[in-house]
Sequence to fold (177 residues):
Amino acid sequence: NNWPFFGLRYLPDGKPLADSGLDISVLNSLSHKFNFTYVVAEPEDGQWGGPQPDGSVTGIIGMVARHEAHLAINEITITASREKVVDFTHPYFLESTILVSRAPAPKNKAFAIFSPFTPLMWSLLAATTALMGPLVWILTTVLRSYTNHEEQHSLMNTPIPPRSSVQDLAFNMYRSM
Fold:
C-alpha cells in the first residue's frame, strides 16, 4: 500500500483489488469516462523496476515495456533511464522535500587571487621559489668545477655560455610557475 496514492486489498483467492487512494480515484474516473475495465496486476519481483545493464527491464516498468500491462499507476519516480523504455504522463504530484543550508558568506574580492591555495601552500610555493634559484646556482657552480667546461666547448667549436646569476636563476624559477 502506498497511502494516500494507492491502496490495495486482497481477495480470498489472493488477487489484488484496487481499494483506495488518489491514483485509484483517477483510474476509476478514467475508466468511467472512457468505458473500460481494468485488472490490478503486481510485478513478480515486487519492484517498480527499470532498465538493467543486461538490457532487461524489471518490475512494473518492465511489465509496461513488455506490453504485459497497458499502464502502471503508483508513485513511480520519473527517471531518464525509465523514460527510455516507457512513456510517462505529466506528474500531478511533485515531492516537496528539500534541503536547506546557510548561504556561504561573501568573500573579499581584493584577495580573491589567493583563494585557490591555502596559506600553507602559498608559503611552500614562496619558499620553493626563493630556494630553487640559489640551489640551482650552487649545483651549476659545483658541476662546472668538476668538468672541463672550456675544453669541451673548444672541441665542439661552440661559445661558452655565460654564467647565470643567482637572481637570474631565481627569476627563471618564478617565471616557470
Remarks:
- The beta strands are 7-10, 16-20.
